[in-house]
Structure formats: structure tokens, C-alpha cells
Design a protein that fits this description.
14 strands; Aspartate Aminotransferase, domain 1; Aspartate Aminotransferase, domain 2; 16% strand; 4-stranded antiparallel beta sheet; 386 residues; alpha/beta
């Protein structure tokens, strides 16, 4: 991070969570002279799966790639695979690369509204929106906040549930990690997220076949990274023959070895960093609770508090004042994604019902940063300014 810029900002969106442990991890990789995906990534995946209540984890180069890998893998499994034209339901507020893989694989996207308080998918609307044509549901945990999984799983039934949990690492619902409820869940370890591996992402699953598909698709679609006994093909005992054998239309979305090494150190810090985020959030909620014309996100389960949302009456005026006082802010993710008309020309989609709450987020919403450090003074200043 640009430390000179950070020092000039009284309340930044994010700050570095690295110390000498991460720097030493990088040096260790340099000394090993092995920079491509290797032992460090494999160890990180093992620890990541354990941390998030899953049998398997596949590390990739970003959370966006994690979403792509999830969708791709569902097209290549032997049974109950997705196909072009299948309907998938999504919330109208999320990041662009939540949706892009859906278009790239030819799915019919049905957008529904979000809940005005939790900012996650409106479960009452979801219940009405599902039909016999609905093959999959993509749930997004926004700004660290897990969805009500009890109600969600009841609605999902025997349909495919996948989760975009890129903003909500460390969030919990009734003792189980958000992102581990569905068939697969995606995570991000970009700089501003709960842990940072430079760039990085991960997919978790309990499904062995999907795990093997993702191992192949992540690395060119080849067989080299598959275990000898796998769910996809019979591998030769001759390593030379398996060097460049391709079975799936894949990508190269592998992480680098340094990202895995850094991730191992970052995972050790995750519990304490999330605890501090929750302490910051408790103070934030207390100070904002009695302000007229200001609404904050309602927590479900145990949020990991990626950031602090504000729905306000005069957003444009507030943004100007925040900027003047060097308090960084951003839109609440994409706002209403349906505003992106040029991009949506490439989509096969429909909108179910009205998007009243998504539109309110679009016109009146913003979010302030949260991080692993004590933000008491910054939040006090924010309160004074508002």
C-alpha cells in the first residue's frame, strides 16, 4: 500500500494487514526459487478447507476467477449439470464478476430485489420467484453479512445453491461458516478484504467430483494436477503421457506460490482480525443508531463486517463532506446492477418484480471502510460529520 497516501487519509477504506511474517513468507518463496503454484498453495488450500467447514478448497488468482470456476464446473459434472438456457436466480446488488460467468456460460439470469435491512437477497421475493424452471440459486453475502440460511435452504430444496462469499470471509451462521452451506462457495483475498494474499481467491466444496473438475479447469483443462484415482478419467502411470493431456475446456487461473505462502500466515490472523472488525461494528452501530435519516445494515448471524453501509437522505451532499474530511467511501458494491444497460445487452435475463430496495441502494447508499485495526476515533469523527 502507498503509505504516504494512507497517512494523508484520516479514514481509509482499507489498510495493510501484513507484518514481518508475510514478508518472511515471501522471502522463503524467493529462496526456494519456486514461484509457480506449488507446495505453499497446496498447504494453504488444506488449511483453508479446514477453516471453512469444507472437505476441499481450490485456490485461484482472484475471487472473480473463483466465481468463474464455480459456474464452469457445474457444466462438466456427470449428473445434474447445468446447460445453456438454464435459469439461475441472483440478487440485483453484487459485483460485476458475480454475474459475468453466468452470461459467459449462457445461463438465463433472473434478478430479484434485496432486503432493505440486511442488503442480501430478499427471501420472500425468492420464495415467489422460484419455479420448476429454476435450476440454481446464487446467493451473495453482502458486506460481510450472512443470509438467513435456515429460510434459504428451505426455499432452495433440491435445486443447486452456490454462494458468492467474497465479501464475507469469517462470517458465521449458527456456528457454521458462511460460504460453506451451498454446493460451492467462493472467497476473495484481495487487498481490501478480510485477509490479503496480494490477489487471490478460493472455492470450497464437499463434492469430490466438482473438486476434481475445478483442479482441471483451473489449470488449462489438463489431467496433470488430478490425483491418480479421480472422478473424471483413468490416468496413465506414465507421467510423460499425462503432461499435456487435456480433458476439459479450461483456463489458467492459478495463483502464484507467494500468494499461498502469504495466505498461510494471514489465516492465522483471521480470527483476531474479524474480532476487531466486529468490535468496530458494535461501536459504529451504537453511534449511528439515533441519527435521523440514516439507516445501517441489519446483522444476520455473525457478520464479519467487510464495511459499514449507510442509506441516507442526502447522499451527494454527504459524499462531498466526507471527501472534504478525507473519509473514503464507495457505492454499496454495484448498486442496482440493472443500471448497466450496455453490459446487460450481452445477457439473457429477466427481472422478477420491482427492485425498490436495490434502487434505494443505488440512489441513497454508500459504504465506509472497516479493517482489522481499532477505528474508534475514525468512527467518532464520522458521527460528528454526519
Amino acid at each position: 500500500m502507498n503509505t504516504s497516501k494512507q497517512s494523508q487519509t484520516k479514514y481509509s477504506l482499507a489498510s495493510s494487514s501484513w507484518d514481518e511474517k508475510e514478508i518472511q513468507a515471501i522471502h522463503n518463496v524467493i529462496e526456494s526459487d519456486m514461484y509457480s503454484m506449488g507446495k505453499q498453495v497446496a498447504e494453504y488450500e488444506k488449511q483453508f478447507a479446514k477453516a471453512f467447514d469444507s472437505k476441499y478448497a481450490v485456490m485461484v488468482n482472484s475471487g472473480s476467477s473463483a466465481n468463474l470456476l464455480m459456474i464452469a464446473s457445474l457444466f462438466f459434472r456427470k449428473e445434474n449439470r447445468l446447460k445453456r438456457g438454464d435459469e439461475i436466480i441472483v440478487p440485483a446488488v453484487s459485483w460485476s464478476t458475480t454475474y459475468a460467468p453466468l452470461q459467459q456460460y449462457g445461463l438465463k439470469v433472473k434478478f430479484i430485489d434485496i432486503d432493505k435491512d440486511t442488503l442480501n437477497m430478499d427471501l420472500d421475493v425468492l420464495r415467489d420467484a422460484v419455479t420448476e424452471d429454476t435450476k440454481a440459486i446464487l446467493s451473495v453475502n453482502l458486506l460481510g453479512n450472512p443470509i438467513d440460511y435456515d429460510e434459504l435452504m428451505e426455499i432452495v430444496g433440491d435445486r443447486i445453491l452456490i454462494e458468492d462469499n467474497c465479501e464475507s470471509m469469517g462470517a458465521m451462521y449458527k456456528g457454521k461458516a458462511a460460504g460453506s452451506y451451498g454446493l460451492m462457495g467462493s472467497f476473495s483475498s484481495y487487498f481490501s478484504h478480510h485477509i490479503s494474499t496480494m490477489e487471490g481467491g478460493c472455492v470450497v466444496t464437499d463434492d469430490e467430483e466438482l473438486y476434481h473438475i475445478m483442479l482441471s479447469v483451473r489449470s488449462h483443462g489438463w489431467t496433470r494436477g488430478l490425483p491418480q484415482n479421480n472422478k473424471l478419467v483413468t490416468k496413465s502411470d506414465n507421467a510423460f503421457e499425462e503432461s499435456f493431456r487435456f480433458i476439459l475446456p479450461g483456463y489458467n487461473i492459478r495463483p502464484i506460490e507467494m500468494s499461498g505462502a502469504i495466505g498461510i500466515e494471514q489465516l492465522k490472523k483471521l480470527p483476531s482480525m474479524v474480532a476487531q472488525r466486529r468490535d468496530n461494528a458494535k461501536f459504529f452501530k451504537e453511534l449511528m443508531s439515533d441519527l435521523d435519516g440514516v439507516r445501517t445494515q441489519q446483522e444476520v448471524g455473525e457478520s464479519s463486517w467487510f464495511g459499514f453501509s449507510l442509506i441516507v437522505d442526502d447522499r451527494d451532499d454527504l459524499i462531498k463532506v466526507l471527501d472534504k474530511n478525507q473519509i473514503e467511501c464507495r457505492p454499496i458494491v454495484s448498486g442496482n446492477f440493472l443500471k448497466n444497460k450496455e453490459l446487460l445487452e450481452y445477457f439473457d435475463y429477466e427481472v422478477y418484480g420491482d427492485l425498490v430496495n436495490a434502487e434505494e441502494v443505488e440512489t441513497n447508499g454508500l459504504f465506509i471502510g472497516n479493517c482489522h485495526s481499532d477505528l474508534t476515533e475514525q468512527i467518532k469523527k464520522l458521527r460528528e460529520i454526519i
